[in-house]
Structures are given as C-alpha cells and as structure tokens.
Amino acid sequence: MKIIIEGAGQVGTHLAKMLSGESNDITLIDADASRLKALSASADIATIQGPASQISLLREAGCATADLFIAANPRQSQSVNIVSALLAKKIGAKRVVARIDDESYLSPENKLLFKDMGLDMMFYPEKSASDEIVDMLLHNASTDSMDFARGKLQLGVFKLDDDSPLLDMNVLDFQQTVKALPGGADFRIVAIARDAKTIIPQSDTAFKLKDYLYIISCREGMPTLMKYLGKSKIEVKRVMILGGSEIAQMVSARLAGQKIEEVKIVEIDPKRCRELSEILPDLVHVANGDVTNADFLSDEGIRSYQAVLATCGNDEVNILSCVIARKLGVPRVIAQVENLEYLHLAEEMGVDAVINKKLITAGRILKFTLSDKVRSVRYMSGTNAEVLEYTAAPGSRITKAPLKDIDFPSNAIIGGIIRGGDSFLAVGDTHIEPYDRVAVFALPHAVKEVDRMFK
Fold first, then answer.
1. Is the Cβ–Cβ distance between 253 and 232 less than 8 Å?
2. For residue 230, how far is the Cα from the chain centroid?
3. Most confident of the ranges 75-79, 101-105, 275-279, 361-365
4. Which of the residues 157, 290, 386, 401 has the least number of beta carbons within 10 Å of its own beta carbon?
5. Looking at the domain assignment, is residue 339 inside a domain?
6. What 3 state SS string does the chain have?
7. CB atoms within 10 A of CB 73
8. How far does Cα 429 stand from its chain's mean position?
C-alpha cells in the first residue's frame, strides 16, 4: 500500500516504523527537518519537509495515488489535521484519517457529519488510552484483557510469579489439569511473552518464571481458570491517579459515573490542580503534591486505595511512582509508558499493566491496511503480536476445510470462534463457516498471510 503520514510526533513516527515493516510504501511529512532526518536514518521511508495543509506539498507527496493518508500531527490544532486529511481525499487518497483533540467530535452525529465530508476515521489517542484504562480497572484479575462479542470470548493476560502452580508444567499438562477440575474450563494459550519475545506455544512448551500467558476462554470458563491461577478479582472502589494529565482527567470523569466511591488526583502544579477541581465531578478530589514522595502519598491515604494509575508526562516518574505505590501496599498499579523500550522494564519492576497510546492507536490504524473482513485490531501490552477479530468471507480459504487441514501460518493461532449466539474455542477439527467471527493472535510478519486466509 502507498501510505502518507503527516506529523512526525510520537504516534506518527511509530506508525511510520510499524507500517514500513509491512512492505508498504511510506511517505512522512513534517515541518521539522531534524525529526525527518532522524527517522529516515532508522526506517525505510521517504520524507518531505513542509506543512501538510499546503496543497502543492500534498500533491508532491503523492496523495493522488495514495491508499491511505494519516494526519497525525500533535503540534497543530485538530482543524489543521482535519483540513489536511480532507484535502488529501479531494486530491485522490482512497481513505483518510485524522488525529483530533476534542471528544465532542466523536459523538455519533458529528462522526456522521465528518464521514459525509469524506473523513473515514478520527482518532484521539488520549481518549482511546483512557477507555483502555477504565476497561483494565473493570477487568482487574489479569494484567490486560480483551472481550470479543460483548464478552462471549475473553482474552486475559496472566503473569507467572514464583508461587504459580504452572511452573513445573507445560501447555498440555495445564489444559488437562484445569479441565479435570470441578466446573473445569476449556481455554487456549495463544501466546507466551518471555524476556521481551513472543512465543506461539505448542502442547509441549514449558512455562517459566515471569512468563506472561495470553489465554482465551469462553466467559463461563474464566472464573475457574482464574481461581486455579490464584488470581482473584480486586473490587476497585477507590482509585488514586498520579499526575493531572489529560488522560487522568478523562479517566476520573469516566470513573465518577461508575460504582466508584472516590477518585483522587495528585498533581504537582497548583494551577492545574485548580483547573481540575473546577471541571471534574465532586466525587473526584485533587491534591497538590509530588507523586514520587512516599511520605506525602502515605499522608494522602494511598494504602486505602485498591488501584493506582500513573499518568504523568514522564515515563520514569510513572514507573517509579507505581513501584512506590506497590511498596505501600496498593494491590493494583497501572502506568502510562510511552517509550516502547521501557514496557518490559515496567513489568519487571512490578507494574501490573502498562498503557501506551501509540500502540492503542496503531491497532486502529492497522485495520485500514488490511481487508474489510477484519473487524478489529489490537496490540496487547507486553508483546509485539496483534489480536485480530475477523469475519470469515464465503469462499475464503479459512472455510475450505477443518483447521488441521489448512496451511495456517505457523506464527499465528486461532483462539476462538463466535457463531450466531454461540462461542467456542478452536481445535484441530474445528471447521470455520462463512460469517463466523474469529479471534486470531498473530506475530507481525504473519498478519498479511492471515488476512489473505479470510478474504
């Protein structure tokens, strides 16, 4: 595909690197020559310096023949991104998406208005990240989670600590043991994250300490699975948020509408504290102080909170403050971490879950580079693999025979299937039928081949 990206910020740069690895023709536009020089040295992309709202520059970049145009500049107002995307569409780009910073633009009536104008999608990374965090707090027995078909199939991520019953087992032993329990559950381990590497497991793959298991199960089987793993759901009633960022503001506003007793934001800037106090519901309390000061956090009653979320603008501060919170007895800690190299470090230091808005956004954008049979794409924290939900097309290769007789990519695995009102796990004898919704876990270099299986 020919893809043009406007804006070499964190999101735009990550998208350029990720999509260039998918055999796409990438052109990146930015007004900052130093950003472009650094990126062109590390990725196989073309660069053009200048403002993307300039029509002559858009033509020079090749918008007339572009398959996808992404306006992702964080340093311009949302109106400039939208105008750039709409101009690219008029010049000839097949599909265009734009980064925004106003939640009201995502209302159903406004999305329809922009769709009619030619804008295929708007994305708001901070809003997507806040939605993900709220979902994590609701599904807090695992480090990450994902629902398919409103929870009929559930994907959870579980870390193996030194007291895990799985440490002397392999995949087959684990499955047989849990199935033999009262109310035994069927499940599938679709991936293992180990030492920053992702493994698509076989039946004889042995578990190791600090492995992260990516497990898919039907909804009714998840409680049995969690009980065996020694994971209990923490009922979150009180949440402390460290840092008064935009994401903190969105999360606290959302939580105030849930069954939450209190949300407290700790922010070091007095002016920002006053702003948050004026715009947030009464349920949200704001305290002025240093999020890395253990004595201050203790005085603010951090030990009485079931969850702590760190969303400061500094990854190191977020990780450190979560470590402090854990040492002070908080059962669940979540950190916003934007440096991809720090994700594994955060997990090693005891952070339960990490949020990275670049990865969340990348999943939404990646969907535009695949066939129309993919319903959703998501990156799970701690792995470089992608979780995709497909609808099987009539006549597609995936429907031709049982899974054991199909040459499915070795670096991908089908976890589960939703057929009508039923959901079930995939095994070798499973025969996927047209219009089935299928959950797939795939490493990056296998995604294109997986995509072809469902067309």
1. no
2. 25
3. 275-279
4. 401
5. no
6. CEEEEECCCHHHHHHHHHHHCCCCEEEEEECCHHHHHHHHCCCCCEEEECCCCCHHHHHHHCHHHCCEEEECCCCCCHHHHHHHHHHHHHHCCCEEEEECCCHHHHCHHHHHHHHHHCCCEEECHHHHHHHHHHHHHHCCCCCEEEEECCCCEEEEEEECCCCCCCCCCEHHHHHHHHHCCCCCCCEEEEEEEECCEEECCCCCCECCCCCEEEEEEEHHHHHHHHHHHCCCCCCCCEEEEECCCHHHHHHHHHHCCCCCCEEEEEECCHHHHHHHHHHCCCCEEEEECCCCCHHHHHHCCHHHCCEEEECCCCHHHHHHHHHHHHHCCCCEEEEECCCHHHHHHHHHCCCCEEECHHHHHHHHHHHHHCCCCEEEEEECCCCCCEEEEEECCCCCHHHCCCHHHCCCCCCEEEEEEEECCEEEECCCCCCCCCCCEEEEEECHHHHHHHHHHHC
7. 26
8. 31
pLDDT tens per residue across span 263-292: 999 999 999 999 999 999 999 999 999 999
Residue 357 belongs to a domain = no
Domain that holds residue 94: 2-123
With respect to residue 336, please indicate whether it lies within any of the assigned structural domains. no
d(CA 9, CA 72): 8
- What single-letter amino acid sits at 115? K
Specify the number of domains making up the chain.
4
CB 243 within 8 A of CB 291: yes
Q: What is the mean pLDDT of residues 346-356?
A: 88
Contact 415, 436 (CB under 8 A): no
Q: Are residues 8 and 105 in the same domain?
A: yes
Instruction: Measure the CA–CA gap between 405 and 428, rounded to whole angstroms.
Output: 8
Q: What is the CATH number of the domain that holds 185?
A: 3.30.70.1450
Residues 170, 206: contact at Cβ < 8 Å? yes
d(CA 323, CA 154): 29
pLDDT tens-digit series, residues 40-92: 777 788 999 998 788 999 999 999 999 999 999 886 667 889 999 999 999 99
Q: How far apart are CA 181 and CA 443, in angstroms?
A: 32
Residue 155 has pLDDT above 90, yes or no: no
Q: CB-based contacts of 69: which residues, under 8 Å, 6+ apart?
A: 3, 4, 5, 6, 63, 84, 85, 88, 89, 93, 95, 96, 97
Residues 402 and 314 in one domain: no
- Work out whether strand 422-425 and strand 412-419 pair parallel, antiparallel, or are unpaired: antiparallel
